[in-house]
Structure prediction request, 256 residues.
Amino acid sequence: MKTEYKANWDFYFTELDGSPASMYLDLGLNKIAPLSDKNYLLTIIITMNDPQDNGFSSKEESEILFGIEDKISDAVTKPFGALFAGRETCDGARIFYFYAANNKEMKKTVKDVMNEFSNYEYEIYFEADSKWDQYFKHLYPTKYEMHTIMNRRVVEHLSSKGDILTVTRDVDHYIYFKSEENKNSFIEEAKKLDYRVTSERKDEARKDFPLSIRLTRNDPVTYHDVLDYTSLLYDLAEQHGGNYDGWETKLITNKK
Prediction:
């Protein structure tokens, strides 16, 4: 395996065929996949016995499903060299995805594990996926979904430092554009939302989006607040041919 690989596990919520879904995956595999020696996909679909109305697992059943996940992972990773790519929870099912070399004995091994959980219905599939399509096209987050992951990480970092997230402060946002026309039309709309332009730059080295601006507004930084106003800016930037590139703010640990 290439030395630059570093596991980077995270989760996000999305929607699949109209149903809410939770994805948990190793984002770090994006840097090394696809792997020619792990060109087969092992998929295990477990039907929950008592899903919630939204299709997710209850706290009690989650513990059982985590136990199944651990046992399956132990059974196929070291013995078969499989890589756990991620899991999906949707519509009352928990689905696990592993990439490995072509060895159909893994299916038997998983069946042996599931014999310990005879009250669960399950399906197993083992098929070629040399391009890792299931990982890149299904598990991996879209650009917007990655945006929500990064939002949560920044908020969690601030919280870990003792930030009082509900306190309003200047929050800076960075947006890139292809043309002056796009940039100016975006600024016009952003000002209607009480944002002020605090920086404008041009970087010829950035061929696709050479123009950048920094917008600033006084806001709290709870996750829900951040998601609300960054999502609006994200969509507004796309409408004007721009690329929203994240936010930053100063740490506030007291109300003085």
